[in-house]
Amino acid sequence: QVQLVESGGGLVQPGGSLRLSCAASGSISSDNTMGWYRQAPGKERELVAVITSSNRSNYADSVKGRFAISRDNAKNTVYLQMNSLKPEDTAVYYCNYDSWNGFIAWGQGTQVTVSS
Fold first, then answer.
1. How would you class 103 by CB atoms within 10 Å of its CB: exposed for 0-12, middle for 13-18, buried for 19 or more?
2. Nearest-angstrom CA–CA distance, 41 and 26
3. What is d(CA 93, CA 111) in angstroms, rounded to the nearest whole number?
């Protein structure tokens, strides 16, 4: 079993910044991918950024240059630094864990609202 606990969401003005954190616990595989997805009302969940245990990362085109994903393997924690936030970034952000052998876990979601 793997459990994910997210934190860091909130309300910010356009152009502001937030840093999301996701701590994993339980039976964690050393070979895994962790990342962030988001879902706005009425829309499907979409990938924001993912990062492997060897620090290979991938970003959605809409956040490239503004968001940065990182991880601390010793702490089993993944971060998402979000800069230059836009109203269209408003969504519930979900942490994701995906092991090499197919086990997937999701966090509970944290609300990010970008508004003036």
1. middle
2. 31
3. 6
Mean pLDDT, residues 37-56 taken together: 96
In angstroms, the CA 103 to CA 84 distance is: 34
pLDDT at 102 (0 to 100): 87
What average pLDDT does the segment 18-28 reach? 96
The pLDDT-based confidence of 89 (bands split at 50, 70, 90) is very high
- Alpha-carbon torsion, ordered 107, 27, 35, 82, to 10 deg: 70
| Mean pLDDT confidence for 22-46 | 95
C-alpha–C-alpha distance, residues 75 and 22, integer Å: 10
